[in-house]
Design brief:
Helices cover 24% and strands 16% of the residues. The protein is built from 13 helices and 16 strands.
Length: 528
């Protein structure tokens, strides 16, 4: 009998406990974070010791890009592995949006759920909240967070923003201050699954609650014996900034918020390590670059300043196709699998998260569609440092039609068919300019994108045919694909509201809710 049991164990046919060979996945997505917001990337940054430790114990990717330079399209691409021109999400959804990420698009959560994973989304969603566009209908077993950006609704403690926004009205007769960039009529909701558990959300406690819910989800999944996928979409570093602790003398509000985000990531890493080092892959990155018009409340670009555009007005960060708009920090940590203290210069993208995690889970990609992302597991494991040959950058609001591909990367060359600057801190914007032939920069020599190649130079004439060929082939591939169209129609009835009888849809107080956040969180308000 002993020999038989030993034989079965060795053959993998029997074991006293079943241990999944599938790895756990944690994807942490920061909001509006700059490439230079990590000390590991930019020596001037001192507020990220936990992230810097993560970089030291894992691999840092310095040529990593978001799939768009604004919220909804970037997140849609992360969860589908496809650019907005394919998955239909080309610009942001509103609080009144009826639609969201098209339902015929398959999400990473749906693929992993089918492969036996417990799936959770915590934080900002911004891919549609009405009806079946809610996270619980898109492959996530559990959801806790806000349905869109946390500046898209009023709160009682508005935090730091430029311009500052007023708090939610408490009475119908209150004088309401109407400002273009502020949501004053409807309070920001907090969801647990399909239930609004707080409206308006208490912004100052949001980071703590996200961390607590993430830990609970990880523990529940671990106790169940199933592998898990946690998508943690942080409110940091998007405005309004609401650091719990005021900045120390000589430190900025932004620095205090950055420290808070860093501590949150450190806590998640600690919990992941407690499950047994080597069982969990942690991938940290950002959805797009800093929101420059927020001035001192915006992040750090590092060297990616888009000097050519700045000379002509406007910002070269969020909403643009300049490097500062889409080059984002990226760290991957997986003890025993991903090399420590390694810096990779491979050209990678947030698009790669989908096919890479699908492959590592032993699942298969959805059929009848083409993907812009690659399985980059050989790069993660240090077996290769070769990523994309060509990477496409869609217009994201600063210039050109949103979603259209009018900038691309080919090796060290960056080509622009359209340029433009988003609103800068000084209020200026850069006019849209068409370039035919394209404006081309050699990023190996000119990371600041300051001086394009002379069209008459040998270098320009040598690389132009390859750029033109890559651009034409990309557009032809998209045209031949099974593309989706998102519904961007709006209706005020789609606004999440837990109490239509109360001004601003306010919950707590009107329903006699307890001020304790944990009890309040468990008290049902309204199921959509």
């Amino acid at each position: 009998w002993a020999v038989l049991v030993l034989t079965l164990v060795l053959l993998g046919l029997w074991a006293p406990c079943v241990v999944s060979r599938q790895p756990n996945f944690i994807v942490i997505l920061a909001d509006d974070v700059g490439w230079g917001d990590l000390g590991a990337n930019w020596a001037e940054t001192k507020e990220t010791p936990h992230l810097d430790q993560l970089a030291a114990e894992g691999t840092r990717f310095v040529d990593f890009h978001s799939a768009a330079s604004t919220c909804s399209p970037s997140r849609a691409s992360l969860l589908t592995g496809r650019l907005g021109v394919r998955n239909g999400v080309t610009h942001n959804f509103a609080i009144t949006s009826l639609g969201g990420l098209p339902l015929n698009e398959t999400t990473l959560a749906e693929v992993l759920q089918e492969a036996g994973y417990s799936t959770g989304a915590i934080g900002k969603w911004h891919l549609g909240h009405h009806g079946h566009h809610h996270p619980n209908s898109r492959g996530f077993d559990y959801y806790f967070g806000i349905p869109y950006s946390h500046d898209m609704g009023c709160t009682d403690s508005p935090g730091y923003n430029l311009p500052p926004c007023p708090p939610c009205p408490r009475h119908g007769t209150a004088v309401r201050v109407v400002r273009k960039d502020c949501y004053t009529e409807v309070a920001l909701p907090l969801f647990e699954n399909v239930t609004i558990v707080q409206q308006p959300v208490e912004l100052g406690s949001l980071a703590r609650r996200y961390a607590e819910e993430a830990v609970r989800f990880i523990q529940r999944a671990s106790d169940s014996g199933r592998p898990f996928f946690l998508y943690l979409a942080l409110a940091h570093m998007h405005v309004p900034l609401t650091p719990v602790l005021p900045p120390a003398p000589g430190r900025s509000i932004y620095g205090a918020s950055l420290s808070e985000m860093d501590e949150l990531v450190g806590r998640i890493k600690e919990v992941a390590d407690s499950l047994g080092k080597g069982s969990t892959l942690l991938w940290f990155t950002g959805d797009n670059g800093p929101w420059a018009q927020k001035c001192e409340l915006a992040g750090r670009l590092g060297p990616f300043v888009g000097a050519w555009q700045r000379q002509r007005g406007g910002s070269s960060a969020k909403q643009t196709t300049w490097e500062g708009g889409h080059r984002v920090p990226a760290l991957v940590y997986w003890p025993g699998r991903v090399p420590a203290r390694r810096t990779s210069h491979a050209l990678l993208s947030i698009l790669d998260i989908f096919p890479t995690l699908v492959a590592l889970a032993g699942a298969v990609l959805p059929p009848h569609r083409r993907f812009d992302g690659l399985d980059v597991s050989p790069v993660l494991f240090g077996h290769s440092d070769v990523g994309h040959k060509v990477l496409l950058h869609p217009n994201s609001g600063a210039a050109g039609q949103v979603g259209e591909i009018e900038a691309l990367r080919l090796a060290q060359y960056k080509a622009f068919y359209t340029t433009g600057g988003a609103m800068a801190c000084d209020g200026s914007t850069g006019p849209a300019e068409r370039h035919q032939p394209p404006l081309v920069f050699n990023l190996d020599r000119d990371i600041q994108e300051q001086e394009p190649l002379d069209v008459a130079s040998r270098e320009y004439q040598a690389v132009l045919p390859a750029i033109s060929r890559a651009y034409t082939q990309a557009l032809q591939d998209i045209a031949a694909d099974n593309v989706s169209v998102a519904d961007y129609s709006q209706d005020p009835a789609a606004i999440p509201c837990c109490n239509v009888q109360h001004v601003g849809c306010r919950c707590h107080g009107a329903h006699g809710a307890t001020p304790d956040p944990h009890m309040e969180k468990r008290t049902p308000r309204l199921c959509l």
